[in-house]
């Protein structure tokens, strides 16, 4: 019997014993065993909305079940209705710190990270102002479901939360805090929030204050855990390929034995007073791009006005239709603008941010931004703007509802606002918002007296924005039904054999290759990947940024549609399109639905074949790109990585494979001309050759006919010949770069490998790297550097090999506090030396194989990823049979083979090492710190008896 089930039995036994009188008469009665404790009451069905059903257990636990048999995965997500809003003085960051601590072990799951890895899980925990959640997405099986429910029920009440674990994890969280301190925009937003709120905890970011992270007593952390981590304050959601009745039975089995707590949850009664004047804060730090944030208090996320506010944010800040975009970006007062809104349980924050290049006026941008935001009567919102915003937002919601995993995790935020059904109610409100509603909320809340940008200025007769009280959420969601549940897709086995059995490959006249994998999916979702390739090494020589910028300009307008019209059409057709270029080619990713695919394909052909390269759009892209590049000048990660890549791939300047410095990139972007892009497109673009892969709900025959019509005769004038990825023998070296005023440093180390992915050693190298540092949760480097010593939030290693060229690489990386460099380097050296000397244990290998193979299955359950793989395989002449054979080789490996392959190829004496950080600042701080207290003298020996 589990420890959870023993509790009620033991309690009943004590009660029965107390009822037996100690008189002689009672002793004459034959003693009977106490009756067994009654089984927990059956779960009560509460409601069902659009395929999601809520139940409640007798102990108060709410359970949401969301079956989706089209997924080969399932997600178990536990939401606790506690976040940084619930922290007391001196406890900022404690909710987030506790989130980390729940991965350190519990009574029946003492080593959680290795368990997650062994089950091939994609897990995480997240903390916000109103809630904390933990989830794991795993391959669908009863064993994995039982394990996940066992894990979550155990750490709900039996997590260790010990002093020794806090000592190491605190430094990891502090490193995460330091990561945020490297972002000027992130720090600026933190400052704005702290000035905008006088009393409410929303003014404190969930990451917390550094001093509180470092100093919170373990007793307060334990008390926080015991108060809020209880079934009556939690929601368990299981989504994916599940049987609802069987899953509910398992949830009851693992959670019903946890008793309902007798304590009452603390009531939070702090309300933020109405702001009585505009405010401003100025941040002065190292950086390369100026930034501006303007924020306004708005109602709670459950209030009806928030739907109109969300539409207003889209009207004002969308690109390229938004008023702020047109007023600041198109006029080159700013490089970029975007919304920054917080939809929370209590009245939240509504804001806008802008990035401004260093050679532009920040004050001019501020004036222009406020002039647009705070004068609603000057140019009232139009019906066209509202409908465009509504279409775009509802498209995102509609496509997201097709993904049960994403819906399950999103519900955590809505539960934090008061109830998960608010997600659907908010969508319904978006549908019903009128133009007048948008105009009304604009005038009501975006007032100077309600604004936080800067300094306090005394003002007579201040105008104030009264924020309405949050609604009664329980009354709001009572009896809510929502839309009809979406059609579910088929059960699909993502094994390599089944993918191959369901995939059809064809080559059209002229060379365009197709891979088609039709299947029914939730909501009729379909994904397409399309690859085009350009020229050869000689014809692409000395073209600068032209080959990479040309694909980036395709979505900015065609000869028949402006950028805005393209975006409107994509929104109307419920399509997401992304284009990425890599110099000698480009990849287009499409996500849409079955009914919209035939209509979207002519638009895709127009985007690819008829770009306008609009002069104004080119200038906007140039400004945005330069701002992005300049932002990297003081960033440790960018500096270290650029230096590392230039050493590892020393191609000459002008070669398409040359690694640009930041100065190179700036010069190339500034030199771009529209005529160059037009000529490059005319000379190099064509669908012969090209690869297209489609996965999801579509008519294969109709799609093939349409692709033939749209692309069959499109051939690039200049032929394509693949450029090789060469192997370079690079001498060992180490370089250090100073990045003043950056709290976080970056470490990179590695070597080139003369290796192809069909090399006999490749399976052993890949798997050895997975155990060394490639596994997300349970690797030697992560266990030593993050878990045990708390030196880094992000640490690991990578191994790569090309499929067509004998060129690969091995590398290690970490982010860390600059003062910890010596400890970090020592840990890296010791762990790599230990692996090369002793290899891995049989137990490590067995556990890692289980996690590795399951993670491969989870990856193949993502249709977008399968489409990308099929497209790539068309080019290199490979099928998923290669995956099956590769996985077979890995699963057959033993420790001797892994160790031999690593010793043969990995040589620390050849490592190239790059370090970037504020090392001088760290040394200065260490020198200024007071000396450590002398060690206590040894205790006197105890007297012998």
Structure description:
Helix 11 crosses helix 14 (383-400), helix 11 (305-317) packs across helix 17 (435-445) and helix 29 packs antiparallel against helix 30. The protein is globular. The chain has five domains: 1-38, no CATH class; 46-255, Cytochrome Bc1 Complex, Chain A, domain 1 (2-Layer Sandwich); 279-465, Metalloenzyme, LuxS/M16 peptidase-like (Cytochrome Bc1 Complex, Chain A, domain 1, 2-Layer Sandwich), CATH 3.30.830; 496-711, Cytochrome Bc1 Complex, Chain A, domain 1; 733-925, Cytochrome Bc1 Complex, Chain A, domain 1, CATH 3.30.830. The chain is of the alpha+beta class and 945 residues long. The chain contains 35 helices and 23 strands. Helices cover 43% and strands 16% of the residues. The longest helix has 19 residues, at 163-181. The strands form four sheets. The chain has a seven-stranded mixed β-sheet, sandwiched between helices. A six-stranded mixed β-sheet has the order 13-14-18-15-17-16, with helices on both faces.
Relevant terms:
globular, 35 helices, Cytochrome Bc1 Complex, Chain A, domain 1, 7-stranded mixed β-sheet, alpha+beta, 945 residues, disordered C terminus, 6-stranded mixed β-sheet
State the CATH class of the largest domain: Alpha Beta
Q: Which architecture of the largest domain would the CATH scheme give at its second level?
A: 2-Layer Sandwich
pLDDT < 50 stretches: 1-31, 454-460, 935-945
Tell me the name of the CATH homologous superfamily of the largest domain.
Answer: Metalloenzyme, LuxS/M16 peptidase-like
Strand order of the largest sheet: 1-2-3-7-4-6-5
How many structural domains does the protein architecture include? 5
Average per-residue pLDDT, rounded, comes to 90
Shape: globular
Distance between the termini: 46 Å
Task: Note the main sheet.
Answer: 7 strands, mixed
What is the number of helical segments per DSSP (H or I, 4+ residues)? 35
Q: How many strand units?
A: 23
The CATH topology of the largest domain is what?
Cytochrome Bc1 Complex, Chain A, domain 1
Helix/strand-derived category reads: alpha+beta
Beta-sheet strand percentage? Answer: 15-25%
Instruction: Give helix % range.
Output: 40-55%
User: What is the radius of gyration computed over CA atoms, rounded to a whole number of angstroms?
Assistant: 30 Å
């Amino acid at each position: 019997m589990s420890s959870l089930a023993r509790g009620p039995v033991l309690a009943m036994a004590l009660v029965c014993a107390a009822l037996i009188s100690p008189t002689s008469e009672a002793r004459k009665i034959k003693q009977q065993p106490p009756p067994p404790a009654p089984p927990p009451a059956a779960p009560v069905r509460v409601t069902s909305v659009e395929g999601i059903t809520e139940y409640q257990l007798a102990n108060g636990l709410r359970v949401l079940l969301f079956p989706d048999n089209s997924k080969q995965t399932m997600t178990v997500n536990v939401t606790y209705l506690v976040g940084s809003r619930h922290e007391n003085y001196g406890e900022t960051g404690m909710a987030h710190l506790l989130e980390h601590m729940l991965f350190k072990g519990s009574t029946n799951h003492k080593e959680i990270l290795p368990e997650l890895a062994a089950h091939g899980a994609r897990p995480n925990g997240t903390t916000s102002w109103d809630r904390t959640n933990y989830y794991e997405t795993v391959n669908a099986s009863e064993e994995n479901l039982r394990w996940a429910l066992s894990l979550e029920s155990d750490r709900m009440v039996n997590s260790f939360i010990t002093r020794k674990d806090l000592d190491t994890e605190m430094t990891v969280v502090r490193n995460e805090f330091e990561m945020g301190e490297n972002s000027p925009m992130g720090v600026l937003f933190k400052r704005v929030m702290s000035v905008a709120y006088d009393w409410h905890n929303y003014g404190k970011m969930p990451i917390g204050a550094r001093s509180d992270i470092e100093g919170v007593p373990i007793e307060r952390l334990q008390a926080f855990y015991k108060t809020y981590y209880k079934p009556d304050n939690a929601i368990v959601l299981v989504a994916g390929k599940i049987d609802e009745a069987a899953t509910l039975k398992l949830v009851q089995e693992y959670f019903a034995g946890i008793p309902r707590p007798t304590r009452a949850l603390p009531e939070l009664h702090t309300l933020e007073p109405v702001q009585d004047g505009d405010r401003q804060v100025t941040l002065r730090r190292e950086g390369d791009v100026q930034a501006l944030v303007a924020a306004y208090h708005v109602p709670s996320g459950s209030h009806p006005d928030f739907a109109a506010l969300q539409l207003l944010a889209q009207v004002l800040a969308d690109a390229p239709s938004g008023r702020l975009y047109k007023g600041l970006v198109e006029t080159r007062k700013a490089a970029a603008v975007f919304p920054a809104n917080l939809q929370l349980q209590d009245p939240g924050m509504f804001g806008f941010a802008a990035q401004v290049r260093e050679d532009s006026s920040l004050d001019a941008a501020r004036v222009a931004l406020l002039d647009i935001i705070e004068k609603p009567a000057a140019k009232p919102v139009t019906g066209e703007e509202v409908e465009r915003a509504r279409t775009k937002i509802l498209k995102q919601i509609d496509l997201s509802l097709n993904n049960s995993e994403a819906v399950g995790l999103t519900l955590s935020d809505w539960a934090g606002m008061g109830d998960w059904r608010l997600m659907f109610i908010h969508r319904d409100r978006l549908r019903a918002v009128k133009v007048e509603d948008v105009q009304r909320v604009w005038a009501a809340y975006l007032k100077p007296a309600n604004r936080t940008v800067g300094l306090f200025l005394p003002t007579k007769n201040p105008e104030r924005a009264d924020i309405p009280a949050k609604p009664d959420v329980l009354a709001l969601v009572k009896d809510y039904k929502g839309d009809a549940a979406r059609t579910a897709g088929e059960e699909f086995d993502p094994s390599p054999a089944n993918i191959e059995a369901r995939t059809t490959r064809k080559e059209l006249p002229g060379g365009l290759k197709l891979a088609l994998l039709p299947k029914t999916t939730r909501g009729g979702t379909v994904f397409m990947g399309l690859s085009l390739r350009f020229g050869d090494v000689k014809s692409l020589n000395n073209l600068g940024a032209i080959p990479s910028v040309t694909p980036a300009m395709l979505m900015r307008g065609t000869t028949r549609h402006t950028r805005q019209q393209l975006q409107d059409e994509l929104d109307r057709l419920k399509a997401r399109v992304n284009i990425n270029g890599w110099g000698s080619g480009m990849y287009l990713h499409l996500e849409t639905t079955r009914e919209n695919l035939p209509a979207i394909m002519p638009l895709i052909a127009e985007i690819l074949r008829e770009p306008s390269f609009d002069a104004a759009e080119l200038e906007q892209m140039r400004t945005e790109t330069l701002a992005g590049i300049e932002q990297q000048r003081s960033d440790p990660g960018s500096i270290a990585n650029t230096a590392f890549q230039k050493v590892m791939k020393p191609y000459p300047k002008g070669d398409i494979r040359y690694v640009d410095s930041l100065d190179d990139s700036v010069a190339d972007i500034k030199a771009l001309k529209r005529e160059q892009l037009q000529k490059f497109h005319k000379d190099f673009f064509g669908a012969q050759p090209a690869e297209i892969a489609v996965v999801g709900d579509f008519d294969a025959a109709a799609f093939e006919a349409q692709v033939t019509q749209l692309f069959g005769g499109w051939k690039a004038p200049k032929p394509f010949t693949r450029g090789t990825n060469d192997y370079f023998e690079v001498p060992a070296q180490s370089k250090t770069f100073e990045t003043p005023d950056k709290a976080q440093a970056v470490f990179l180390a590695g070597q080139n490998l003369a290796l192809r992915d069909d090399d006999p050693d490749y399976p052993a190298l890949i798997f050895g790297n997975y155990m060394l540092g490639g596994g997300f949760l349970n690797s030697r480097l992560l266990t030593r550097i993050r878990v045990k010593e708390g030196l880094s939030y992000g640490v690991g290693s990578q191994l790569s090999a090309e499929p067509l060229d004998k060129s690969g690489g091995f590398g290690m990386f970490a982010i860390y506090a600059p003062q910890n460099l010596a400890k970090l380097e020592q840990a890296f050296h010791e762990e790599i030396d230990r692996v090369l000397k002793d290899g891995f244990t049989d137990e490590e290998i067995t556990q890692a194989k289980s996690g590795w193979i399951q993670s491969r299955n989870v990856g193949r359950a993502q249709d977008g990823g399968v489409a990308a793989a099929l497209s790539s395989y068309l080019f290199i002449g490979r099928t998923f049979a290669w995956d099956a054979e590769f996985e077979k080789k890995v699963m057959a490996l033993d420790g001797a083979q892994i160790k031999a392959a690593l010793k043969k190829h990995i040589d620390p004496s050849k490592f190239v090492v790059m370090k970037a950080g504020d090392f001088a600042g760290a040394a200065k701080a260490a020198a200024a710190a007071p000396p450590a207290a002398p060690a206590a003298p040894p205790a006197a020996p105890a007297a012998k008896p």
